Known about the structure:
Residues 5-104 form the FAM192A/Fyv6 N-terminal domain. By secondary structure, the protein is mainly α.
Amino acid sequence: MADRFVSEKELDEAKKRRQEEWEKVRKPNDPEEMPKEEVDNRPLYDRLKEVRDRKQAEYEEEHRFRNMVRGLDADECDFLSGVEIFKAKQDLEKIKEEKALLSEIDRAQARKNAEENVPSVSNLRVKPNSGIAHKENKQAAILRMAVKRKT
Length: 151
């Protein structure tokens, strides 16, 4: 119980120590004596209530924007749907244009292949038909028509 009470002598010693520390860190334009510590004489309940209220206010400030959710009004909905329709039309036009270009490329390539593969009269030869009819193996005929892919 004696630990809770402080004698006048101990208070004076603590004050002298603080004054010596003040002299070490004091600047020329600071006062000679160390400023007195502010003593809060309010009851503990009031001090704790102030701290609790301050923390509650900070919490509410942080979470204030979370509670500000609102729906879209009619004008905003109309605008956003218009933007969506516009983008859909642009995408559709782009797809149509790509398809048209691809079909044009396919047609040009087909024409080029057709021109290259047209047999000329000089290339046409008649195979001499020998009088003997060969009996061919059906399996061999099927394999001759097969195309082997390069791997």
